Amino acid sequence: MAASSAIRTIISPGRYVQGKGALSRLGEFLAPLGKTPLLVSDDVVWGILGQRATDSLRAAQLPVTRERFGGIPTAAEVTRLVGVIDRTGADVIVALGGGSTMDAVKAAGFLAGIRWVTVPSVASTDAPTSALSVIYTADGAFEEYRFFPKNPDLVLMDTQLVADAPAAFLAAGVGDALATWLEARATRQAHANTMAGGLPTLAGTALAELSWGVIWDNALPALDAVRDHQVTPAVEKLVEANTLLSGLGFESGGLAAAHAIHNGLTAAHQTHGLAHGQKVNIGSVTQLVLEGAPTQEIRDFIEFTTRVGLPNTLTEVGLSVDDEDDLRRVAEAATVQGETIHNMPFPITPDELVSALKSIERFSRTVRSEAHLPAPVQYVAHQVDTH
């Protein structure tokens, strides 16, 4: 993925809004964008925030039309939503929920030629701000990225929703966001293109690095606050790092090995129920190994992510060092032509990736034992948010 020109670029959503109770102002911010909104959410999310969204739209004298999200952002689901847009005459589509909902809505909004808005119910990924969607197969395996010529017109993040959700969602967002700086610095070193379509700008790389620092300073107190359903300054900072800083940082700073390894892990059925950020964290640890990063840097990363509640061993994502066939499939999927692992400043073969994946098991166990941290156990796979 070496850059073919000296063009540098940064992209971003039209507007980002964050704060406690921000959902009550959804109608106010939607009104300038369209007069016939279509709200898309799954039944769980709608049960939690549907009434507040409805009240906000009605206060802004906007009609309320809600469509149920099918659960996985497949090509078929995107096509179905385009049909709903055509049938309802919607001029702006709104995703309420997690990254999977947002991926489907962004793709449908683009195909239908209307504006799109993201209203995350959790801070579990950096998907809300981006101009791309990840499309999966019906059984949850990565299929393709779809890129769009613009970002969402509005991202509205209610931090009370984040605080009311299980802390595991916020922890998963940390896993996704921690990769941002690791991948941006690799992209910069390789002089590779970013998802924004050019070389990284100073701003994009700086935002990626800023997200890293904010996370290390605020993740642990923020997670404790969310366990008590409280919104504190640490929560506000972590939500911004997980969502805005990481979103702009990954898209305009560059992706590398960590997210490619995530995509490869979707080829192993054992990982399908795990959160996007959980799998990305495996990718981050493995990228550090591939880089030959200083031992202390890897140790610190393993200790910190363990305290956050993220996996850093194969065991925790349902794999083992003896799963030769599965690990080979993961490695081959992560290194296919066009994958972001080729933004690394050196080539990586499937054999090298298999070795790196195997190596994190023993090393992470050793680090955790020496730091008196819990031994790895397999995470319970559940559909929290596959992207």
TrEMBL record:
<dbReference type="InterPro" id="IPR001670">
    <property type="entry name" value="ADH_Fe/GldA"/>
</dbReference>
<dbReference type="InterPro" id="IPR018211">
    <property type="entry name" value="ADH_Fe_CS"/>
</dbReference>
<keyword id="KW-0520">NAD</keyword>
<comment type="pathway">
    <text>Polyol metabolism; glycerol fermentation; glycerone phosphate from glycerol (oxidative route): step 1/2.</text>
</comment>
<dbReference type="Pfam" id="PF00465">
    <property type="entry name" value="Fe-ADH"/>
</dbReference>
<comment type="similarity">
    <text>Belongs to the iron-containing alcohol dehydrogenase family.</text>
</comment>
<keyword id="KW-0479">Metal-binding</keyword>
<feature type="domain" description="Alcohol dehydrogenase iron-type/glycerol dehydrogenase GldA">
    <location>
        <begin position="13"/>
        <end position="159"/>
    </location>
</feature>
<protein>
    <recommendedName>
        <fullName>Glycerol dehydrogenase</fullName>
        <ecNumber>1.1.1.6</ecNumber>
    </recommendedName>
</protein>
<keyword id="KW-0560">Oxidoreductase</keyword>
<dbReference type="InterPro" id="IPR016205">
    <property type="entry name" value="Glycerol_DH"/>
</dbReference>
